[in-house]
């Protein structure tokens, strides 16, 4: 698409379709860069339908950038509970605090500065700059790479990080300088609704006339993407322990790593005598088995119910909680599943 007239016709077809057919999403009702930032972080690795209620609750709880900057971490994690990838929430808050401390609460409007913020990568930077500030900046995610690989017949492997540069250059070349927000969102929307991974709806596509893959019958062969390595599997025993006062034993995860600082029913590899002594239990009974899949590993969890006569002398990361108190704890999804099963 080297011809100016062809590029302009492509832009008009894409932005015209987007403005006529776009989904009514809550973050599309604002140009506030903070709220757009929140939505873009939530949308990473999470479906739009799933994000909507989380976004609305989150903005209700933290309506301004200062509210989020000042929020205690446990409150932040509780509002994020269920979305997963909790490092996204922590990085978002860290980035927001930088904006409050260094830029008087005003999200930077240029790529070098906004990209220096914690957790803001090339895609998030481009999305905020184009949608909130109307800057002609590329915002390349998986949807955009899929769409452009077909339109421009790009055959490089999109699983390789270096390939992103090819697509960023393509967007920079094609982007509508008059309406970069609709252009970037149009590419994303096209990938979500029409130019889908396995069954692209080519007959409904507003830019089909410009699509090289469609004209060559290669739309289902693109994008080229090598398969990820098989995920690692880990076996865990989750101990659901109640004391004589009816409280439940919970342990706080370490400050770093997966699900950092969240609460869980104690996880062990097996129910050894040492484990029984540590938690003050004599016997335990199996009541639930399930697997939880993270992006890079799978937990196979067996859940055992037990009673403990041990009132104290527990490790510093363990505490007893009433059922009401547990409602305030930030729990990862597998622990929510166990809690819901226990407290039916």
Automatic annotation (TrEMBL):
Keywords: 4Fe-4S, DNA damage, DNA repair, Glycosidase, Hydrolase, Iron, Iron-sulfur, Metal-binding. The keyword DNA repair applies. Its EC number is 3.2.2.31. Binds 1 [4Fe-4S] cluster. Its cofactor is [4Fe-4S] cluster. It comes from the Bacteria. It catalyses: Hydrolyzes free adenine bases from 7,8-dihydro-8-oxoguanine:adenine mismatched double-stranded DNA, leaving an apurinic site. One of its GO terms (molecular function) is purine-specific mismatch base pair DNA N-glycosylase activity. Residues 42-193 form the HhH-GPD domain. Pfam families: EndIII_4Fe-2S (PF10576), HHH (PF00633), HhH-GPD (PF00730), NUDIX_4 (PF14815). InterPro entries: A/G_AdeGlyc_MutY, DNA_glycosylase, Endonuclease3_FeS-loop_motif, Endouclease-III_FeS-bd_BS, HhH-GPD_domain, HhH_base_excis_C, HhH_motif, MIG/MutY. Belongs to the Nth/MutY family. Adenine glycosylase active on G-A mispairs. This is Adenine DNA glycosylase. It comes from Chungangia koreensis. The lineage of its organism: Bacteria, Bacillati, Bacillota, Bacilli, Lactobacillales.
